Amino acid sequence: MIVPGSLLDLEWLRSNEGSQILNCLLHRNGTRLRQFGLLDGPQIPSQLNVEEVTYKVMLAGKTGVGKTSTVAKLTGTDVPLTHNETPGLQTSNLYWPGKIKHLGKTVLFNIHLFDAGEAALKRYDHILPACKDGVDGILFLFSFVDKGSFDEIPQLLTRLTNPDDGVCKIVLGTKFDLHAHSEVTQRDIRDLENNWQIPVLRIRNVQHSQQAETSGGGVGDVTPVLNTLCEHLWHRDVVISGKNL
Ligand SMILES: Nc1nc2c(ncn2[C@@H]2O[C@H](COP(=O)(O)OP(=O)(O)OP(=O)(O)O)[C@@H](O)[C@H]2O)c(=O)[nH]1
Ligand SMILES: [Mg+2]
């Protein structure tokens, strides 16, 4: 497993250059990422010399675990308050910047998220191949308040990936705001990380306004998840291209 901060400079986002680029990606109030259309990507001043890289990432996990809510939280849209099964396949994209330490290069990660409802995946055979085709990374989701969803993760890992496929794999525990009622222990998480050599992250998919009241809110909530995802996607490219770190 790679050490956080070994490839991406995690402090860089707070630098002048980092915050200038981040501001181009955020809403004016600075609390969430902005949506961009197909033909109107972020306008980053050309003198900042930013290279854009595109990745496809799918979300997997039991129904109701929070895949659609996680996409909303990460992309800066409204998190659904109730569970509506995702009907088929939904795609969204987000931009997140990073500074590659060993190259001193600034990169804009353009991440396409593929979110399929679990019921639709079971009902239609063609959805899973569409998600897996050319996929660079998979986020495996479980909910802290549903042990069953955690116990399904190894099965999902075996079903969707193999150790040599080069796909970047990250496990994400949702509903961490309800951790007082958690059915998943720290030990369960440590064992999963050690057995599969995969990082396990945590996310609270609560509305930005709710979150702001409790813990400062804003884009800071999603920064650790996005940094880790980008760092692992970049690491995968480094491994695939056989370059030394
Ligand atoms: N408190 C809390 N609720 C959450 C969190 N994430 C998701 N939820 C709630 O969990 C329910 C299900 O979330 P969805 O995102 O629709 O679940 P899904 O995995 O997309 O489900 P399918 O589309 O059926 O596969 C919704 O009521 C969300 O509001 C979280 O981090 N905290
Ligand atoms: Mg859904």
UniProtKB/TrEMBL annotation:
Gene3D superfamilies: P-loop containing nucleotide triphosphate hydrolases
Keyword Transport (UniProt): yes
One biological process term in Gene Ontology: cell projection organization
Location within or outside the cell: Cytoplasm, Cytoskeleton, Cilium basal body
Transmembrane segments: none
Signal peptide interval: none
GO MF annotation list: GTP binding; GTPase activity
Family: Belongs to the small GTPase superfamily. Rab family.
Predominant location category: cytoplasm
Record-given protein name: Ciliogenesis and planar polarity effector 2
Keyword tags: Cell projection, Cilium, Cilium biogenesis/degradation, Cytoplasm, Cytoskeleton, Exocytosis, GTP-binding, Nucleotide-binding, Protein transport, Transport
Keyword Transport: yes
